[in-house]
Structure formats: structure tokens, C-alpha cells
Automatic annotation (TrEMBL):
This protein's name: DUF2795 domain-containing protein
InterPro entries noted in UniProt: DUF2795
Domain of life: Bacteria
Taxonomic classification: Bacteria, Bacillati, Actinomycetota, Actinomycetes, Pseudonocardiales
Amino acid sequence: MSAPNPIQMQKYLSGVDYPCTREQLVEHARSKGADEEVLEHLRALPDRTYNGPNAVSQEYART
């Protein structure tokens, strides 16, 4: 399964309040209308607190 474009993923995370957890990222993206492919890749991120969009993008690229 190839990851959706990180720019697409960040579009769904626009406005999220950092720091936040993986589950908060998933819920925020869901509330912004993210498709299931993006949500699955967010769920695959390590379960930790993220301090900003760069940290999310780095881990997202690894999934």
C-alpha cells in the first residue's frame, strides 16, 4: 500500500492544534473529510505525541 501524497494528508490536518496524539490527528482528518486511505496511513503512524506538521510528515513518509 503506497502512502497518499503528504501534501494531500496535510490538507486534512490544516488547523490541528499541536502538540497532539495520533488519535487526535486521525479524528481531525476525519472531521475534515479525509478518505479512508489517508485515515489508514494516519492510523499506521507511531502512537506518540507530535509537535508539529513536520514531525507528522516525516513519520507519514515512513509508513
